């Protein structure tokens, strides 16, 4: 092997040239008509996808003619077979086992420190970063003993603790690997490269060796490239080396510059930039565009050269579209439209290039509206697939002891069947939902659900769930167990829950590409579990989700052959007819430089690790490569989740160069946004009218409560929905007791107090009422936070009620809480029954009655009562006057009272509904008769909120009446 680099050994393919196609054409031309010459070549590429892309390029360049391909080897695949036959090297420790082993070290060290140790899922995240640091140390061939030279006393205390931990790890980790007969991936690559270099030194290969498409950011790979450049038939073909930039800028390159990595590689090879041979010219097919990118991204130290930069030629931006979308949804929709339109031209190819996985998933979903399944090189996260989601939900449901939200999310999953047909199982779950899972949270566990269930079919369902989940629940309840036991119990529970009447659970759970990936992960987790050691069962669900999050599923079939979603690395060597660079926001592309949890920047520099900004330089190189494509679209979202975004630094620099010469982007992509907006926009907007249904007399209600009479007056449509359509609002799932529930608890406590002390008050009425209230709260409130919010209010109410009771009892002959009554009225369409449940009726010594309505919210005003819009108390008085309440003889009303029990300041307040109770009762009864007669006319509709000023503050039927649509200020343009 030569000590010097021979001329022509290092070449570059300029930006804008399809890299793999140009490489394939070059090698085919050199092979000529001899197929064995091509087959004798060896080509090293960054990864396996690049190898497949080059194989496809040979097929295109040969016109479909079969050829014997060169030997294609991926440089970036650390588990690939090495041609230097490193068979004596130890295998790489499986990734999951390695991560769990490092997690165990993190937990062991944290246990010896002050304060509580981190939970295993947090330790697993730290272990991922620790593994990355170990790989960096191995890749840079640094001696871990150098950590001792970082002078801990010069750093903050937490950094000193971190350095002590790293010193322990770097000393223990080699022994752990040796015990398991394994090696780190970066170290294995170092050994593999060293073995190959030694073999080449002893016997240089007689065949051509070509390394192409890599920037040599890994030191071992850089050594390999340097050796290839010195081989008799070796060549290194670089992607997009800038040969035309000025020397001052070349000397001033910093790690964030796109050429920084290539400059470092040339220095490692030992060749000057001027000696690199360009293929297809120094600037490629679009020299003006390449020069624009070079100028825009030049180092900050030489940006004064912009002053001498002439106007940007129109050719530089020909074929470039800049699209700034309002948000991610619009950005993804416009990109999907561009990709879809590309298919209208025969043979046209298109690709989205982005590191933003959320954007990639949005685009893939948008393409689904046309039935297009796109190839995404990064795959789908396993935890978002059907089996991955089911496994996560199963663990959560059992760990949370069948809390309502977790239970419904799991049992309504398509894979859940519980030994029944999936449709039959879901029907039972819906019945269980209404019976036990809506409203305030039931007591924990299946026993808590059984308390609210009487249906035998549902009880059988709960018994089956108990059998399925009991072993897993027992494992989760263990104070200390092992990960393998937990994982096996978890997977067996999921399989049993997925068991269907016509298909066994394992066949359903592990089916398809995602199921196979989940099965592989399950097997790997079970096998690697001993590396973690013991843990408490309660930590398993979070740890499982953390470990699952890094697994992806790649689709091998049924994707469109002409559309792709690539990461920046995959796009470096390929160039479709239309290239879309998406997600160009700062923090996304380029990604934000995250703080290293193990070393500060000065520590990294002192230890010899490369700066984290080097990744920005690599991303910048990929951006420039894509920007030089024949037809390119640059997209970004101006806001994400309502927060304004910052354009990528590369866009900002391009904007600055264009603005300096008062130029703008020729195409801003506005049309694509408008077209996407019109996809889901109706051709015309018809303003909806308020609903006013006219049901037949036979369907109209003949029995209403006094509270519903108020609703009938304020919002007739709500009566129609409830009593004609029969629609009843479901309680929220896992609801904390709100204002309405609090009101019910106050009513119940006061009812029990009056029934317990009907004649004489106890010595301390406030204490007695508080004791009764505590019993009521204990029955209804499971959340300590809710108790803490509402209980102080009740304590204040108890004090006010006790004082009011003490003052009132001498005036009263008896008190009657929660009385039910009814009054039958003659009406045009037949008898109408008015019913009531009075909060409290007190009989005075003179025989007259006080009617009291408890209000934990704001009571109606006397004006509303007089106008007839709050008829509840007056109608109750009318029923009492007619003797309609059981066990309460007919008597005239003396006073109609509202007790406002807010628990604030003041805690309570007594208000009169009106001065003349008898007159209010008579007026309310007359108004009710007139209202009944009006609605006994079949032509009278049930309008929604006919008088907005008197409309109820809340209704369960606002969405059904589409109030927001017809009550808005105007029609949408």
UniProtKB/TrEMBL annotation:
<dbReference type="InterPro" id="IPR027417">
    <property type="entry name" value="P-loop_NTPase"/>
</dbReference>
<dbReference type="InterPro" id="IPR038726">
    <property type="entry name" value="PDDEXK_AddAB-type"/>
</dbReference>
<dbReference type="Pfam" id="PF12705">
    <property type="entry name" value="PDDEXK_1"/>
</dbReference>
<feature type="domain" description="PD-(D/E)XK endonuclease-like">
    <location>
        <begin position="703"/>
        <end position="943"/>
    </location>
</feature>
<protein>
    <submittedName>
        <fullName>Double-strand break repair protein AddB</fullName>
    </submittedName>
</protein>
<dbReference type="InterPro" id="IPR014153">
    <property type="entry name" value="Ds_break_AddB"/>
</dbReference>
């Amino acid at each position: 092997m030569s000590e010097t680099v021979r001329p022509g050994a290092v070449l570059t393919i300029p930006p804008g040239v399809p890299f793999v196609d140009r490489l394939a054409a070059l090698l085919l031309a050199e092979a000529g008509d001899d197929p064995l010459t091509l087959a004798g070549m060896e080509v090293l590429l960054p990864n396996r996808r690049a190898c497949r892309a080059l194989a496809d390029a040979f097929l295109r360049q040969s016109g479909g003619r079969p050829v014997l391909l060169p030997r294609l080897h991926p440089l970036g695949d650390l588990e690939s077979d090495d041609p230097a036959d490193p068979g004596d090297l130890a295998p790489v420790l499986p990734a999951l086992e390695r991560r769990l082993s490092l997690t165990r070290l993190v937990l062991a060290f944290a246990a010896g420190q002050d304060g509580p140790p981190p939970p295993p899922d947090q330790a697993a995240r730290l272990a991922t970063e620790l593994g990355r640091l170990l790989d960096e140390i191995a890749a840079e061939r640094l001696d871990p003993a150098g950590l001792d030279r970082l002078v801990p006393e010069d750093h903050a205390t937490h950094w000193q603790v971190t350095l002590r931990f790293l010193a322990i790890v770097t000393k223990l980790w080699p022994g752990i690997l040796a015990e398991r007969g394994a090696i780190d991936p970066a170290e294995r690559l170092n050994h593999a490269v060293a073995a190959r270099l030694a073999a080449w030194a002893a016997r240089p290969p007689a065949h051509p060796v070509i390394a192409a498409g890599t920037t040599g950011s890994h030191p071992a790979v850089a050594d390999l490239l340097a050796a290839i450049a010195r081989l008799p038939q070796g060549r290194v073909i670089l992607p997009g080396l800038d040969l035309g930039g000025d020397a001052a800028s070349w000397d001033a390159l910093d790690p964030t510059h796109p050429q920084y990595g290539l400059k470092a590689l040339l220095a490692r090879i030992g060749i000057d930039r001027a000696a690199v041979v360009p293929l297809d010219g120094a600037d490629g097919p679009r020299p003006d565009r390449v020069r624009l990118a070079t100028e825009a991204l030049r180092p900050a130290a030489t940006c004064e050269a912009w002053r001498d930069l002439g106007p940007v030629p129109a050719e530089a931006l020909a074929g470039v579209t800049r699209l700034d979308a309002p948000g991610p949804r619009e950005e993804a929709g416009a990109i999907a439209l561009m990709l879809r339109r590309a298919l209208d031209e025969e043979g046209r190819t298109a690709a989205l290039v982005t590191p933003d996985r959320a954007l990639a998933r949005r685009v893939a979903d948008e393409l689904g509206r046309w039935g297009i399944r796109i190839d995404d090189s990064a795959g789908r996260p396993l935890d978002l697939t059907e089996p991955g989601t089911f496994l996560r939900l199963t663990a959560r449901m059992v760990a949370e002891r069948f809390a309502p939200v977790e239970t419904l999310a799991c049992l309504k999953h398509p894979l859940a069947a519980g030994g029944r047909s999936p449709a039959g199982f879901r029907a039972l779950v819906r019945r269980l939902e209404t019976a036990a899972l809506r409203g305030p949270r039931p007591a924990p566990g299946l026993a808590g659900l059984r308390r609210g269930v009487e249906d035998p079919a549902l009880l059988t369902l709960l018994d089956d769930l108990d059998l399925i989940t009991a072993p897993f629940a027992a494992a989760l309840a263990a104070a200390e167990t092992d990960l393998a036991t937990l994982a096996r119990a978890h997977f067996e529970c999921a399989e049993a829950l997925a068991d269907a009447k016509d298909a066994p659970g394992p066949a359903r759970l592990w089916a398809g590409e995602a199921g196979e990936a989940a099965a592989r992960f399950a097997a790997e987790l079970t096998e690697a579990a001993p590396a973690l050691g013991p843990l408490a069962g309660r930590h398993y669900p979070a740890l499982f989700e953390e470990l699952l999050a890094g697994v992806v599923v790649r689709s091998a079939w049924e994707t469109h052959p002409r559309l792709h979603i690539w990461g920046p690395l995959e796009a470096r060597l390929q160039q479709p007819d239309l290239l879309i660079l998406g997600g160009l926001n700062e923090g996304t592309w380029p990604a934000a430089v995250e703080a290293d949890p193990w070393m500060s920047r000065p520590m990294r520099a002192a230890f010899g690790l490369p700066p984290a900004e080097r990744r920005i330089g690599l991303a910048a190189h990929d951006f420039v490569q894509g920007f030089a494509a024949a037809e390119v679209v640059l997209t970004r979202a101006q806001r994400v989740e309502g927060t304004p975004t910052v354009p990528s630094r590369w866009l900002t620099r391009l904007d600055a160069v264009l603005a300096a010469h008062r130029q703008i982007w020729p195409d801003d992509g506005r049309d694509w946004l408008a077209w996407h907006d019109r996809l889901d926009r109706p051709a015309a907007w018809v303003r909806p009218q308020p609903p006013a249904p006219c049901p037949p007399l036979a369907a109209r209600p003949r029995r209403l409560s006094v509270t519903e009479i108020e609703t009938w007056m304020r919002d007739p449509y709500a009566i129609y929905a409830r009593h004609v359509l029969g629609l009843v609002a479901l309680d929220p799932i896992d609801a904390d007791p709100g204002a309405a529930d609090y009101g019910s608890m106050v009513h119940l406590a006061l009812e029990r107090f009056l029934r317990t002390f009907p004649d004489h008050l106890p010595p301390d009425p406030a204490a007695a009422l508080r004791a009764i209230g505590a019993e009521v709260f204990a029955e209804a409130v499971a959340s300590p936070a809710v108790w803490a919010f509402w209980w102080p209010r009740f304590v204040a109410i108890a004090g006010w009620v006790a004082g009011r009771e003490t003052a009132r009892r001498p005036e009263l002959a008896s008190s009657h809480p929660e009385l039910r009554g009814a009054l039958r009225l003659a009406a045009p369409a037949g008898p109408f029954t008015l019913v009531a449940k009075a909060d409290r009726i007190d009989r005075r010594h003179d025989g007259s009655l006080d009617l009291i309505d408890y209000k934990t919210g704001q009571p109606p005003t006397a004006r509303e009562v007089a106008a007839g819009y709050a008829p509840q108390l007056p109608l109750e008085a009318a029923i009492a006057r007619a003797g309609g309440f059981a066990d309460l003889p007919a008597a005239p009303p003396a006073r109609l009272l509202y007790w406002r029990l807010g628990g604030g300041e003041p805690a309570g307040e007594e208000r009169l509904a009106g001065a003349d109770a008898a007159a209010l009762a008579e007026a309310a009864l007359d108004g009710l008769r007139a209202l009944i007669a009006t609605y006994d006319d079949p032509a009278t509709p049930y309008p929604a909120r006919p008088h907005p000023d008197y409309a109820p503050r809340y209704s369960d039927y606002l969405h059904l009446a589409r109030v927001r649509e017809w009550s808005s200020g105007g029609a949408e343009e």
